[in-house]
Specification:
The complex is a heterodimer of chains A (about 500) and B (about 200). Chain A has a single domain, classed as Formate dehydrogenase/DMSO reductase fold (Up-down Bundle). Chain A is mostly helical. In chain A, helix 4 crosses helix 14 and helix 11 packs across helix 12. Chain A has 17 helices and no strands. Helices cover about 40% and strands about 15% of the residues of chain B. Chain B is built from five helices and five strands. Chain B has two domains: about 110 residues, no CATH class; about 70 residues, no CATH class. In chain B, helix 3 packs antiparallel against helix 4. Chain B has about 200 residues and is α+β, with helices and mostly antiparallel strands. A five-stranded antiparallel β-sheet of chain B has the order 1-5-2-4-3. The two termini of chain B are about 20 Å apart.
Amino acid sequence: MGYLTPSTKLTPPRWDLLSKHEEAERARAAQENIREPYVTNNRSAVWVGDRIASAIENPTPLWWYIATAISAAVASLAGLGILYLILTGVGVWGENNSANWAWDITNFVFWIGIGHAGTMIAAVLYLTRQRWATGINRAAEAMTVFAVMCAGVYPAVHVGRVWFAWYLAPIPNANGIWPNFRSPLLWDVFAVSTYLSVSIMFWYVGLIPDLAAMRDRVKNKILKYLYAVLCLGWRASARQWVNYEFCYLMLAGIATLLVISTCTVVSSDFSTSVVPGWHGTIFLPYFGVGAIYGGFCMLITLLVPLRELYKFQDLITLRHIDLCCRFVLLMALLITYIYLMEFFVAYTGGSPNERFTFYRDRIFGPYSYTWVCMLIFNSVIPMLFWSKRVRRNPWMAFGVIIFPSIGMWLERFVIIVSSVHRDYLPSSWGMFYPTYVDILTFVGTFGIFFLCYLLFIRFFPMIAIAEIRGVLPEANPHDPPAVERNGALAKEEAHHA
Amino acid sequence: MPEVITPLASSVDSGVVPKKLYGIGAEFAGPKEIFAAAEKVRDKGFKNWDCYTPYYVHGIDAAMGQRKSLVNLFTFAGGLGGLTGAFLLMVISSVYVYPIDTQGKPYFSLPGFVPIMDLLMILISAIMSIVGMVALNGMPRLHHPLWEWDAFTRATHDKFFIVIESFDPRFSEKAAIDLLRELGGANLTYIGETE
């Protein structure tokens, strides 16, 4: 007596559920066996665990030390830049009265966009039962968390006097004044902090079973203790799995909603203003698509080297890279549509200032080179992904993906700086040039990002062990025998030949 | 006379029964085997027992006769709480405590409050989902009788276990051992607990 374990609950059997479920599972198994496998080379569940854990258990490779040292050095640039800014004031950045939002917000939107994609990949693909995503969701979620951390640097310090940043919290400030809850900038505070919290929760819940697996296998006492505490005493019992899976489903739903909310709020920062080029209802899909686009690019940038370095080719297969590239292609087409739509709306909208911003300043203005590069990088170069040969060659995909990664940063620069530097009054027009502090801080955020990521892959399973095991053919209790499976495969291949 | 210390987990064949029995565990080779075994244990009418699997075996909840998880109630409660909390936070502060006239907008401007209501609803429902999951799963725990069983560390790796707990109304040592043997369980073990 006295156990408050879930097993103490009395539950009647659900016969109806079982028969229906069994039927559905059999049908699914039959379907899946003719597709390309999630894990290639018929790897077993044991192999999956061993291979993923090997990244933690094997001696630290030399490249890891080198990469970490470089990342830490680069990250310290951001530290110095921020410190200098706090000690001196926002004047150390290139902002001026004409372009009072510039690199800080560009970089903020750039990083938060990368962050959005991670949750989108993990949550939306989970909800839509894209079981191949088990191979990449952990890496994507980690990317989200670290990217949002990098993004958070900017709103925190661009207020200037950072010691007053607590005025943004929903509490009365030193003068007893409450914040203005109608301001999109305050929505932004809630959006980014909620986003960071929920991304961390989603990531952590996904990690629990794998932390328990690591607890049960590592030899190092300190690490064992760390994993044991972090996994909260996971026992891998079926009664726990059911609650766990349901919780994960709930979180996936919540996270999807949150991606849309945060995109909306971040885009409201712009679209609720009257600045020509910002004042558009297209901004929500614009930011949403841009976020997923930039995020998939960053994900491919991370996955391609990782699968080579850790020999994860059977877990992050060519199919995964292929599917990510297809997403990139889709997003490239969508974003091109939005670019065109912006011009169309500016034309039909009838506002002369808006027309000037798009038809004169964007195309022929002093920042036209950013617009042209953006268009080539985001709309033209990714069209290479129509070719299967490019999508199926990881390093070629890696090479292509660098362009839209830069292009997405340029896009934010185009939206922000080239809209705001010439608005209604020609007498207040001006130019923005980044200072060295701007540049150091931005380069430094990459250091922060990669440093966090390197630490993550060193100490935590970077691929979801339990989830991948769950989608293996052997994990299906209703799996048809191997002979039948091979027969179906052969039939499918003959069909395509 | 020196006290004899009985081990907390010992093989059924050894005949050394721990002073206080938590349950009897058996090892199964794979998901198919444990799925079939779970159906049989369910049909025998046991209530306090559990399967331990390295990953979620689809359909095992039905094979065990489990009811749907209750985590969604926590999610809903959290969402409702967050929504109401955010609404009250903004209405009380910007209508009653410190009304600020911003650009002539009404103090009670509901459309402007929607984003934060939405975001806090999401935040609190996410927190509550996890709280619910952790609570329903009997976590966090730093110790559990099952961890006395050496083989059990493989429950997160490659082995599948069924443990019939001693506080099940139908539990008897012999019945449980016979059943687990009959279902093809290997390495049958008494799992004890400290008093």
